């Protein structure tokens, strides 16, 4: 029973954590009426919670494996009482920065569940269950929509204090319903870091999540105040539109994970970053509210889909280092939400518009698209290499002039020659002398006419021993029909022939 409720419990934990994480940005239009905040400093108030929310994801992901999600959630929620109360009585810009920094703990809990939840499900469901858990970012939509509505009734300070009651409820729930017997992973932190930091896939996934989750966080904290200032919308209307952005991204996250369980994830990321590039260009033209909404919904669609896909890939690549890998990738995603609001505010102060900032998003997404395509073809090449190395038949490939350019382990086992010994040589070095020149002339004539030849042939091993070989030679051609290479598959049939002759 306890194990079955971990996914819903931890998803709701994430909802609460994200509700708290965006508390300041949700209420900023109200807060700035009571606290003087320089216009050029507004972006810092919304961006500062992202700092700790990103940095703490690494240790929280690691310790979730070490001591279990239940303890980490309990400690995190108890600690969040202090910054929430501090913000509720804040009366200066500095108070907001200090309190906001420690609100980041609410966003950091993401790496706890994304490390813990997959332990309860088979590998083929990891994309979907991580997508369901990640849908807990709907908490940002709840705060963005509900907090302004409540604040109009009871004021922003009392609204902030209501979150302390919510925290108390979830401290109790985690104490009684959290899994006390969760499977622990005791690998030391330094060992896990050493095993992943040189892996290029970790940093590529970090970049991709920097864009997908970073754009989600950035738009979430930047939209409420931006829509009020730039389009002169009512505060509740701006909150509702931002909640719509978050809802779309949230719904797409489990869909992205579900699709990644069924379709090659890198193919999905190609579509995701193509969409980012196009919608970034649309937003860079500073459109009307209608086209701006289309662009934002498009970004929400791509960001939610990408978030779900990436956290199908992370546990797949890093099964034994899931805690630290989840922490690093999710931390980079959080930092991806820290910089854009500051950069947009800075560019606006220089140019009077946001076009350059949105165009930069488009260009970074385009660069990521190129990297995803590269990863996809690298994986296909790696798969091909694995198949070649695993096959029991000897393989050698020559260029069109007949020089050997590659072999496989089975070739070495069969002939005695290592790959280094034969690279650049002609396969004639293995001729036994039992076939006449006319035999080879006829063989190559057949290859030129039919594109392949197969049959029995005597060859000589490195130790000088002759053996009977079944050989298939195929011409590899390009799209224009020109021969690029020749591939030979060979197997030893000497013993097989002896048995047949005796029977």
TrEMBL record:
Keywords: Membrane, Nitrate assimilation, Transmembrane, Transmembrane helix, Transport. GO terms for cellular component: plasma membrane. It is a multi-pass membrane protein. Residues 453-503 form the PAC domain. It holds the Pfam family MFS_1. Residues 380-426 form the PAS domain. The chain crosses the membrane at residues 12-31, 43-60, 67-87, 93-115, 127-150, 156-177, 202-222, 242-259, 266-283, 289-311, 323-348, 354-375. GO terms for molecular function: nitrate transmembrane transporter activity. It is found in: Cell membrane. Its main location: membrane. One of its GO terms (biological process) is nitrate assimilation. Belongs to the major facilitator superfamily. Nitrate/nitrite porter (TC 2.A.1.8) family. This is MFS transporter. The lineage of its organism: Bacteria, Bacillati, Bacillota, Bacilli, Bacillales.
